[in-house]
Fold these 2 entries.
Entry 1:
Amino acid sequence: MEKHKLTACEIVEEIKHSKTDSLTVTKSVMDRIESLDGKIGAYVEVNKKGALERASLIDKEKQKGKLAGVPVAIKDNICVKGELTRCASKILEGFRPPYNATVIEKLLKEGAVLLGKTNMDEFAFGSSTETSAFKVTRNPWDTDRIPGGSSGGSAACVAADETILAIGSDTGGSIRQPAALCGIVGLKPTYGRVSRYGLIAFASSLDQIGPLTKSVKDSALLLEVIAGYDEMDSTSVNREVPEYIRACVNNVKGLKIGIPKEYFIEGMDKEISDSIKKAEDVYRQLGAVCEEVSLPHTQYAVSVYYIIAPSEASSNLARFDAVQYGFRSKDSQTLMQMYENSRAEGFGAEAKRRIILGTFALSSGYYEAYYSKALKVRTLIKKDFDKVFEKYDCVLTPTAPTPAFKIGEKMESPLEMYLSDIFTISANLAGLPAISIPCGFTKHNLPIGLQLMAKPFDEETLFRAAYSFEQNTEYHKKRPQIK
Amino acid sequence: MKVDKELVKYIAHLSRIKLTEKELEKFPLQLENILAYVEKLDKVDVNNVEPTSHVLPLKNVYREDKVKKSIDIEEVLKVAPERQENFFKVPRVIEGA
C-alpha cells in the first residue's frame, strides 16, 4: 500500500489501530521523494536519517500526540534547531539555528516527523518560487509551470505526495496562491493565531504561519497543533484554541456567503470566473445564501501591500549584516564595505528590489506620500470587511487571477508578478483568516482554487464552509499524473 | 515619479547594498513602473482616516522580568562568519586607528 498517498487523519487512524506504523509511512514518503523530487524540486534539504530515526522512536515508544508518526515538511524560513534554515537565500549560507521555532516545538510535542526544508521564493519575495537562490520548483500538474509561491516547495510536495503535511508562511498569499495552483488546501490563519517566533520575518504586520494539506480536515488538525498564545511572540493572541477538527461539518444551511463584485475583474481568466460561479451554485444547492457584496477599496490592495510589505521587509532584512551568522563577503577592508558587499553578493535581484523599494518608501521626503498614505488606505480596506461581516459569515472569491503560468514567463516584469497576489493580499492587510480549496480544473488540466475569508478568529466558519464544499465535490480527489 | 540612477544609488547606499552596473541600469525603470502603479493611491481620500500599522488592538505587551537561561554562547558563535574568543569579529570600525 502506498502510504504516501494518505492524508494525516487517515494515517493517525491507521497508526492508532496498529494497521501501520510511522516507520512504514515515513519510508514510503522518503521513497517517493527519492524517485520524484529530481523532477519536482520541492525540497532544499531532506533529512532522511533523522526522519527515519524519529519515526522508529515514535513507534518503539508508542508516542501519543495529535500527529504521532505523521511526516511534515517545513518551509525554509522556519527555524529548526541544527538544520539548515536559509530562506532559499545565499545570505543565510550555512545557517543552522541554535533554537526551534515555536511551531516546530509544537509539532514535535504532538509527535510529528520532520522530513526536511522546502523551497521558496528568496525570503518569501515572490509568487512563483523562481526567486529561490537554490533551485527551480515545478508544478506537479505540469512540470513546465511554476507551483506558485512563495511557499511553492511546500505546496508542490503536498500535491506530489512527497509529504503528508506541510507548513508554509503567508504574507500576501504565499500559502493560498501556491495551494490553488497545485490543487491542494492552504490556510492563512488570523493574524495573531499562530506564533511567529522562529519564523524569519518578512513583513511583521502581515506574516502568518499556516498549513498546506491534502484535505480540509488535515488543515484543521494541523492548525489545532500549531495555534495558540506564545509569550515569545507578543503579537500572538491569548485566546483558547478550539478543536478545529470538530468544525469540519458537512452542513452550510443558512450560511451567509458574500461574493464581492470587485473580485471579478476585467481580463480575468474566464475558466476561473466560471469555476467560482459553479462553486456558488454548489453552495446554494447545499442551502447557503450567496449574495453579491461590495468591498470598494479592493482595487487599492496591491498598491498598499507593495508599499507596506517592502517597507517592513527593508527594516527586517537589515539584520542580515554578515556579523552574527550567514554569508560574509571576502576581502572587505572596512565595516561599511563588509555590509555593502555581503548584502550585494548575498541577496538576489528581487530581494534587493524590495529592500530598495521599502527603504525608498520610508526615506525622508517620501514617507508621507507613500508609507503613511498606504497605512491609511489599509484602514479603509479593513473597514470594508468589517462592514460586510456585519451581515455575512464569510466571503467567497477566486484565490488567484490565473492558473499556474510557465516558468520564466513573469520574471522580467516584477509588477506583473505582483498582480498574482491581487485576490489574496486583502486578507493579510485586514488580518483575516482565509483558506484556498480546489474548485475546478482548466481545459489543460491545471487546478483552480477558491478562497474563503472570515472574521478574525473565525477559522471554524472557514472549515465548515470548506469541508462542506469538499465533501460535495470531487476536485480534491484528482491527483496529478507526474510526467 | 521619475526614478533615476542617482536616486537608486542613494537608496541602495541607505540599504547598505552595493549594486552592480547592470542592476543600476535595470532597477530605475522597474521601480518607476511599480511606483507609477502604487500612485493610484493618490485618488483615495484619506482625510480623517487613522493609519493601521497593525490590525490587533495591542498596546505594549509586558512580561515579568524573570531570569531565564539563554542560548549557549558556543551554540551562537558556532554559526558566526568570524569570531575571536567570545566575540563576533568584524573589520576595523574606526578608520585610521
Entry 2:
Amino acid sequence: MKLYQGFTLGVTTLAAALLTAPAAVSAADLGITSDTIVRLYERDDSGGRQRSLLPVYEFLRLDYTAPKTPGLSLHAHGWGRLNLRDDFGNADGTADGELLYAYLDYLDPRNRDYQLRVGRQYIFEGLMRESVDGVYVKTDQVPSVTASAYAGLPVNLEDVKGRGGDWIYGARVAQGMPGRYDVALAYKHTGNHGSTDEQLLGADATLLLPANITLLGHATWNLVNGGFGEHSYELRLPFKALELRPFYQRYRYEDFLNRKSGGSAPFRYMSQFGEKVDIAGSEAFWYPAENIEFGARYKHYEYDKRYGSADMYTVLAAVRRKIFSEVGVEFGRVEGDIAQNRYYLGRSYVYWDMAPAYVTADVVYVNYDDGNVWSMYGKESAFFASVGAGRKFLDKALNVKVSLDYSQDPYFDKDYRGTLAASYAFGR
Amino acid sequence: MNKGLILIFLAAGLAVALLAACASTPAYRLPARHPQIYELGDRREFCTKCHGYKKTPVDFERYNHTPLFTESHRLVAYQDQRICALCHEQSFCNDCHVTHTELKPSVKNQTENYRRMQHRGEYLSRHRIDGRLDPTSCYRCHGNPQSSQTCRPCHG
C-alpha cells in the first residue's frame, strides 16, 4: 500500500478509535508506540554518481482498548519512509510505506472461549504465516479442542494497480490433553486471478514421552501437486542443565516452494528441478549457571540432484550480568561441497547496561574459502563493526539511540553508516 | 488426493477429537497478557525460571527461549501463537515476518544486539552461499511476491 494510503487509513483508524472513546482517554486504554529512525550513508551507483542518502523511517503502532466494551480492542501498525536527500536510485521512489496490520479484536471477556479479529492481520497458525485482509476466529468452547478459521484477501498478492489476489481461507483443528499430547490438522487455500495458487493440508503434533522427552512434528501435503512438501521432526532430550535437540527435516522443493505467480520469483525456478533435500542434525544447550549459556548446532544436508552434501556448524556462548548486560561470542562454519560454498564466521558483541544509558558493540567477520570468483568480486572476507549508545528518558518511555556502522566486504570497500533512532511509548 | 477424501479425513479427525473432548475435563484458559515483569518481552527468557517444569496447564519448557530460538521457534509458534502473544505484540514478529519492509531486523534494531537476528552484518555476500545450500530457510520470510521485493532488484 502506498504511503499516502497507509497514512490516510492510519489517521482514519486513529480518529475512529478516538471518536468512539470517552473524552478523556486514559493511558491504560490507549497505547501508541513510535519508532523514528534516521539513517545516513552514501552509495555509488553504476553510472558513477555518488548518492548521499538520508532516509527517515517512522514505525507507528496503536493499541486501543475500548473501556465500555470489555474484550474489544483495536490494533494497528505501519511504517513510512521519506528520503530527505537523494533517492535510492531504484524504483522505490522518494517515499514509501506499508500498513502492516489494522484490526479489531474481540476476546470473550468472561471465559475467553472465543476470539474474533476483523481487518488486516498476520496469522501464524498451522500452515499460515501471512497477512490477510479479512476475518479470523478461534474457539475453545469444546473442551480440549481448539478450532480456528480465517478468510479474506491475501495481502502479499496485492499488485501495484490494485488488489490482484483472490481469496485465501483455511482452518486448523487441534485436540490435546495438557501434559500428554497435542495433535492438529490444518488446511489452506489461496487463489490468485481466479486459479488455485496454493492448496495445502498440514498436520502438527507434540507428544510428551517418559523422562520428560518431547517429540514435535510438522508435515505439509501439497494438494495441487500431490506430494509432501515438508517433514520436520524434533526430539527434546533434557538432562538437567544440558539439553539435546536432534532433528530431521525433508523438503521436496516442487511441493514446498510455490511455483505459481503467487510465489517469489527467486524460488519459482527451483521447484522445477525436482530437488529434494534431507537435513539432519542436532542442537545442544548447556546452562552451567543462570547467567551463562552455551549453544551449538550441527546441520547436515543431503541433496537429491544438485549438490553434494553440506554441513553447517555453529557454537556460541553468552554471559549476562545483572539481567540486562550481556557479552557473547559465536563461531560458525559452512562447509558446502565446493570451495565456493564454504566460509567461516566469527562474531562477538557486548551490550552494557548503565541505566538509564547503555553502550553496544558488535563485530562480525566472515572469511570465504574461495573469494576469487565473480560472485565475490575477488574478495575473500567481509568485516562488519558497529558501536552504539543510548539513553532512556521519561521513566523509560523514551529511548534515544545512535549507532555507527562500518563494513568492508565484497560489495563495499569502506562503507560507513550512521543511525539515529528514537522510540517513544505513550501509555507505558 | 481428492477433495472428498480430504473431507472424510477431516471429518473423522473431528469426530475423534469430539469424542476425546467429551471425556476430558474443562480446559485452562490463557490470560490475555502476561503480567508485566521488568523487561519481559524485550529480553529472552526461560518460562521455567518462574513456572517450573510442570506440564500443565501449559508445557512451559516448550517455550523456553534458547540461544537459537529465533531459528527454531516455528514448530511451537504454529501450534499456539496465543502463547507468543502473551509477551509479544504482533509488531515484534513483523521485524522479520512482514509483507513489505526496507530495513532488515538487525538494522531496525541496531543496538539490540543481544537479540539473535537474521542477516546481521554484511549478508549480501553470505546469502549467495546460504541461499544455494538452504533456500527453504529463506522462503519462510521471502517466499511471496510482496516480501520478495528485497530480492527483486537482482533476482527479478
